[in-house]
Amino acid sequence: MGSTGYQVSASVDTHRFVLDNLREQLRDRHRVVAHCRTALGTGHRGGWSYALYAAITDTTTPVTVSAHVVLYLRSHHAGTSEIVVKHLHETEGPVQHHGVTRRVLEALTPTEHPHACQWRTDALQHHRAVADARRRARDAVGAVIRLDRAYTYGHGIGAVQQVMVCSPTQWRRAEITDAGTVTNSPLLRAAPGWALHAFEILRAPAQPAPHTPRT
Description:
This protein has helices spanning 14-25, 102-106, 114-139, and strands at 3-8, 30-39, 50-58, 64-77, 80-89, 144-153, 158-167, 170-177, 180-183, 188-189, 199-203. The chain has 215 residues and is α+β, with helices and mostly antiparallel strands.
């Protein structure tokens, strides 16, 4: 479960290199049937930048398809470039699963290995949580909410925790007064995945006036 570093030229495409490297490392009669990648964001444990998820088939009898997770990053030092990769099989208990697509998951054949079953369960639960969060974000448009944490913005805006949801991806900082809702910031980009966390609705979205049919 260790990592391996590869010295590469500056012109090498990181993502293509990692996928090609995975294919080169496979044993005979193994091949990639589906794959995807995701950025892990800053501050990720281990310092990894990306995860490549691959469904790999073993064409020996019986044919099986299992999941592989490749963590990787690229660093530059004194004019040299290095790509570092760490290859994990789903039976090794990888914790990264948030970016794996349903296409990759649906390509897998059944397994009874406890670590692999847990990894697949966690991935599917995350998909359901993301779908629910999207619905919650849509339903919150027009509401004033208090987020579970403060998010800090530059340009003199500072910490923001109470906002009006202008769209699932945009906020304005908001205050509720006797006269109504006051928004006191420019349009802000909403924090990624904010609806995956708890939030309190302080003022529900205004309901449209009921339609009165003509007589």
